[in-house]
Design goal:
The chain is an alpha/beta fold. It has helices at 23-29, 44-53, 70-82, 94-106, 113-119, 179-198, 204-227, 230-248, 254-266, 270-284, 288-296, 302-316, 330-339, 352-361; strands at 12-15, 35-40, 57-64, 87-92, 128-133, 145-150, 153-158, 166-169. The relative contact order is 0.11. It binds nicotinamide-adenine-dinucleotide. Residues 40, 42, 66-67, 92-96, 98, 134-135, 137-140, 143, 145-147, 173-174, 176-177, 181, 185, 188, 270-271 line the site of nicotinamide-adenine-dinucleotide.
Length: 363
Amino acid sequence: MINSFIYEQPVKIFFGKGFLSKLSEVLEEIGAQSCVLVTSKFFAEKANELLQNSEKIKAVYSGVVPNPLLSGAEEVVRVIKENSADTVIALGGGSSIDTAKFAAACAYSEKTPHELYLKQDFPKKVAKIVAIPTTSGTGSEVTKVSVISHENEKKSIHSPAFMPTAAIVDPLLTMSVPAKTTMITGIDAFTHAIEAYWSVNHQPITDGFAIQSIKLITQNLEKAYTDSDEEAKTNMAYASLLAGLAFALPKTAACHACSFPLSANYHLPHGEACALTLDSLMIINNSQRLEELSKQVGMESTEKLASYIRHLKEISGLCTKLSQLGEVDIDMLSRESTKHPLMANNPVKLTEDDLRKMFETIK
Ligand code: NAD
């Protein structure tokens, strides 16, 4: 029986190889007049090319760093104000998209980005956002989430103010992603889809996205990692988009809750931090529903799906033990993870002690 649900997805999505060329068309369609383009160093040259070729793009900010900082978003707000921009274009991975989303939400407020970071009372009027992902992982192009760090805190902020107006998903932009980042971002998408499926807020439409995404990831991630294969990378771009659509409403759960203290204190990239506990949590969260999912995606059982995740980590040299991070404070990790709001979405209620036991098994 299908339970009642409310579904919404306001982002207009343009998916296709070479679709970066549609940027001018998209800007015209959404009524953009004056745009600021936000990116990281890797795409600075490409961004300047876009600046030269579009009258609507007035400035480029190419200073975004991984695990993006509030100070970066503050800089972008300054550039938006200087150019009276009505639209922020993000070209890059989750770090560029999240910086652009946060800055767009702060641009027209009387308050400073720091005040808004603390209180999250974003104004109703925000700049439009066009998100162009260049990694296959975060799904940030279709979510209300922006993850921003400040003073050793990595905060996952949820607000309708962050919802992009349009997303251009051009798989060709992901061809240059190095192998290890392909694996890390691919496992991030894997985690989104699995957590969307087991979140207590899951619903039929998002379950459909999650199942299709997991199937594509199990069929394509290893090939995208080993061969940089164009078809596999295109399928991963689609799988990542589907995973974003899958978790946008149900949100994620225990695995993401554990990932935040791991990234904030031991500087693990987001996807690698998720990967560290994903297989353990799969066994802890196992259920008839999860066994059925495993079969639907071509694995015999949840145990087989969990060991496939271990295999992906091993072939790509991702962290599999806490000891690889140096001296790790398991008490702090368990305490911080239990306190995280996303923990409330986990299908199995986990206490600090349960998490301590889990972290002990991957010591
Ligand atoms: P990233 O954006 O930090 O990029 C990682 C590195 O890859 C950077 O050095 C970047 O310059 C480089 N890069 C990006 N695209 C490239 C390309 N095509 N070719 C070569 N190099 C490229 O990585 P990410 O995994 O996409 O984003 C991670 C961030 O997103 C984290 O802060 C994470 O917490 C956040 N996140 C946000 C959401 C959301 O819904 N907003 C969801 C999951 C994760």
